[in-house]
What we know:
Layout: E1 2-8, E2 14-21, H1 23-29, H2 33-86
Antiparallel strand pairs: 1-2
Amino acid sequence: MSVRFKIRSGDGKQLEVGSYEGQGQRLAKIKDINEMKMLISELQKELAELEKCNEELEDEIEMKKAAYMDEIAELECAIDEMFWHQG
């Protein structure tokens, strides 16, 4: 079984990040040490890519959080102004 991970970046683009094939299946197929070393290298690269995507997503979350908090504060101020002008 092979699963590909897809995530959507902030600019609407879809990023495809690596794939995961069950350990048992992969190890059963591999009989060569060099193949195992190559697989380790591949997995390390995929892990690095996932970590990079994670950092990008965390940055995007922080930016959106700040923007939403600012917008909420502005809306609350607008409500207060409307309330005082009605009274």
